[in-house]
Amino acid sequence: MFIKRTDLALEARELWQESAERTTRLMGVKATKTKLEGYPVTRVDILDHRGEEALGKPQGSYFTIDLTTFWQRKADFFERAVRAVGTELKALLPPEGAVLVVGLGNAAMTPDAVGPLALDSVLITRHLLSAMPKQFAGFRPVAAFRTGVLGTTGVESAEAVRGLVEEVRPALVLAIDALASRRCGRVCATVQLSDTGIIPGSGVGNHRSALNQETLGVPVFAIGVPTVVDSATLAADVLEESGAEKIDEERLRDHEPFMVTTRDIDQQVRDLSKVVGYGINWALQDLEIEEMNALLS
Amino acid sequence: MFIKRTDLALEARELWQESAERTTRLMGVKATKTKLEGYPVTRVDILDHRGEEALGKPQGSYFTIDLTTFWQRKADFFERAVRAVGTELKALLPPEGAVLVVGLGNAAMTPDAVGPLALDSVLITRHLLSAMPKQFAGFRPVAAFRTGVLGTTGVESAEAVRGLVEEVRPALVLAIDALASRRCGRVCATVQLSDTGIIPGSGVGNHRSALNQETLGVPVFAIGVPTVVDSATLAADVLEESGAEKIDEERLRDHEPFMVTTRDIDQQVRDLSKVVGYGINWALQDLEIEEMNALLS
Amino acid sequence: MFIKRTDLALEARELWQESAERTTRLMGVKATKTKLEGYPVTRVDILDHRGEEALGKPQGSYFTIDLTTFWQRKADFFERAVRAVGTELKALLPPEGAVLVVGLGNAAMTPDAVGPLALDSVLITRHLLSAMPKQFAGFRPVAAFRTGVLGTTGVESAEAVRGLVEEVRPALVLAIDALASRRCGRVCATVQLSDTGIIPGSGVGNHRSALNQETLGVPVFAIGVPTVVDSATLAADVLEESGAEKIDEERLRDHEPFMVTTRDIDQQVRDLSKVVGYGINWALQDLEIEEMNALLS
Amino acid sequence: MFIKRTDLALEARELWQESAERTTRLMGVKATKTKLEGYPVTRVDILDHRGEEALGKPQGSYFTIDLTTFWQRKADFFERAVRAVGTELKALLPPEGAVLVVGLGNAAMTPDAVGPLALDSVLITRHLLSAMPKQFAGFRPVAAFRTGVLGTTGVESAEAVRGLVEEVRPALVLAIDALASRRCGRVCATVQLSDTGIIPGSGVGNHRSALNQETLGVPVFAIGVPTVVDSATLAADVLEESGAEKIDEERLRDHEPFMVTTRDIDQQVRDLSKVVGYGINWALQDLEIEEMNALLS
Questions:
Q1: How far apart are CA A122 and CA C245, in angstroms?
Q2: Which chains touch D (3 or more CB pairs under 8 A)?
Q3: At what angle do helices C289-296 and C265-284 cross, to 10 degrees?
Q4: Is there a contact between A265 and B261 if contact means CB atoms under 8 Å apart?
Q5: Model pTM score
Q6: How many Å apart are CA C178 and CA C111, to the nearest integer?
Q7: Interface contact B260-A232, CB threshold 8 A
Q8: CA angle (C60, C64, C65) in 5-degree steps
Q9: I want to staple A2 with a disulfide (CB 3.0 to 4.6 A). Which of A252, B152, D81, D83 is the partner?
Q10: Is D156 on the interface with A (CB under 8 A)?
Q11: Which of A109, A260, A270 to mutate to test the interface with B (most CBs of B within 10 A)?
């Protein structure tokens, strides 16, 4: 069967449901919808191995914040997005302990640059707390690491992070990465949070490369932003939007796949990465957005 | 009818021929195929108003150099691409006179940055010839202009170029721009040369914005590299590749169009822009590629 | 005699006064001091040819805003700097008419990048007023031009600006450039405004390259930020600060001069360029700083 | 006494000798001069604790390659510089074993960017050897790490490197850093190699932050390029060049010091960083410069 490629739990569930064969109920998965700051939020819980198998993702909670209306740039769109991401993240993370934020991906390749770009907006405090513990007592310790890519480091991201975890001894790791979505409309218009760790380069099945509790020894949380869509998935998507009743998926099976992104990706990645970075500050520090602006300028 | 969007004369001709209604012969258009340095070259001549109407482009000659195999990086792929582009361009341009090379597009938006990026590889000589005419007697005078984009200049590219042409008085203008193709396989794998001028932002029908003999008072040649594909066109393309006999184009008509590009666009635009810049040097100056390397480092 | 190199009228006057020979009064020059938003402002008026000769600068008014305390980053330091620069500039410029803002210098060479960097913070409105005159009726028309440098354009900045002035027909030109100061303490800590035009590359005596009423046909105002200091001038400066009573200037005469800048120039140029850009918006548009932030993000 | 600030062993020795008090012989230090590829090389060996005390640097060998004539851009200047640096480095390093190359410094601050910029020209092979050991059997394993700066990571460079050394287990670490020189003429015109490790931020006396055998458990070699000069040192330098017989150093003592660099630092750092990166390839891999060009493009 033609597989629509996605890194979003939300879409994995959609695809399961859309599939013609699925007349039965999806067991081991629970989904709930809410709204936060005007942005829709979908929570998908994968509860057991039935859910894991059906959706192809590890057990845990996945929150998808739908920022489609962000791009209408209505009143306070940026601040609301930061608070939406930050509030969900705060609820997901343990309330205390040092944090190591890891930016995965290639800063020189725009659709892969969400991780390093978001880190530019994260407040780094570990060294300040270490040097002046009294003056910075109100801050939570945060360190950051940009993994780079294998071709320019020679070292798997997971190896490098493991070495750093040994030295820094954080209470948790928070990993930021670019994702693949099944829909162009979700590119740079969605943020997914999860408590399940991350496999860089998404699901290539290389277990040594996973960033999770098992490989790093501390809980690993993930923030992802979809920036690319598989070409065959896009084709199916466009046809469906155009009113085609049913795509003959056989047709798409043999197509040599490649990943596409939008023409406006430079601006979109820049803006969403800032939302992610500020959202992390919102979750970890007791600061207003104005104060973040001042500290990061 | 669903219109497959393209800026390539080659593809406009393909589309005309593929169209179910076209059982008649395409009048006013001539096409010939050759090879140069291992790369296929297609020449499309639009001979009269029948050709103009059929293909939606002004009368003149269009050369499309197919650099698909460039990305296999076989022996001398870069040098051969430069010579292929340079040789065709040299045959197209008047053999003498000062040249103003215009880089259109937005340097901060990767799929739109071909123009400004290519200029970084063009040898600029006008000021040297002006200051030391004897020492640089072997060079052809070349000046360059980066138009930027309307949102950051407030001035239409054509206006700004016209002002500069008045001052610099070149024998010809050579404009570099990013194009839209109907096929992902041609993105950053094709170079189109033409002697017909250019309409920035492609065919929006704004005659004031055209760069051509009529608006600038000197002949205008164009070099374009496709970097984006319309989403509906991509969908049709993927389905065709997948063996679908015939796409129901009605389906695609109502789809809200957007432009997509490849995930690897940063590297691809960088590499092809260098081919274009060096190809221009090859056409205008009497230099080996090694010498260009030394002069541009 | 050893010449301390400077582009600031304020410093040219200082140097005249410090000179041992000057026991007479400086004729044809008037200087006054005020404060604006907490920042000291010195106005030097060169009134006639005696002043021109003494200070080596054309007749006109020069305002130097001393932003030394900017770097202490006290309350509202950025907003106050923008208002100080903006208020002086507003008083200097004609109250109406379209403006062409010209950013001189090399964006790829940090100490020379003030012009192009400042333009990134200037609101460009000419095209909006042209397309939707009613909706944007409250704005003053502003266009922008980045001249680049001779080595990458082949065209003198003055030539290119003259061509654009012919097309755009602004009421005035406002040119932004990097300057040389005699004191390291003024590097990225001073803004000079003047109504006298500008000679790019400062005072090389090439009259064809001047941007002024004579060469462009419209009034030319200038904003400059010192980013470099001549090495011999720095040496004299350091010795004086260190308490040396009198430098033997003969010693410095034969020294091969070169320009130096500070180690922190990247951050300093970025910050001061934003002050300049916002200051221009403050002078030309009826907007609060918050509104500029929203429009430029 | 006024201290002329330097990170170069060569200059520390010069300063010792120039000092008026030094009528005795410098014990515990040996210096020899040679030429390599047309560039002068000075070797300073600090042999024992007397040498350490006199020069303020740890025991070991320091090679200074004088690339002043590089900037005359005579025949093969780049290739000769690469071979000079590469040949000295090859003689200094153990002939076998995996190498971790560490780029220290701030990529966003030009005079501090030598480390990260040089890494862009280093061939990274560890992952290739790991995935395809037979195909890449001719290469020596090389991994790379960009430490970033404390303010953007929260982690001391030495901590992060130690964690990575634990994972990667290299036979040696090779650290690249920007240095301070006492002379402007040596800025981006000198490369220092040593087998003594490195203290980032140079000699602030923070032993925890050193990168050396003691802190990392493997031998640490260093490559440094001076990019800044202390302002008081520059002043003394300029006065001396100008023929002053003797500087009254008392004068310079109270001067508030700051670091300066040259106006052309962007281009100079880019060019010298490439020399360093290619020099490392020359020392570690069996490759011609042409082959490096092909592999790094």
A1: 50
A2: A, C
A3: 110
A4: yes
A5: 0.94
A6: 7
A7: no
A8: 145
A9: A252
A10: yes
A11: A260
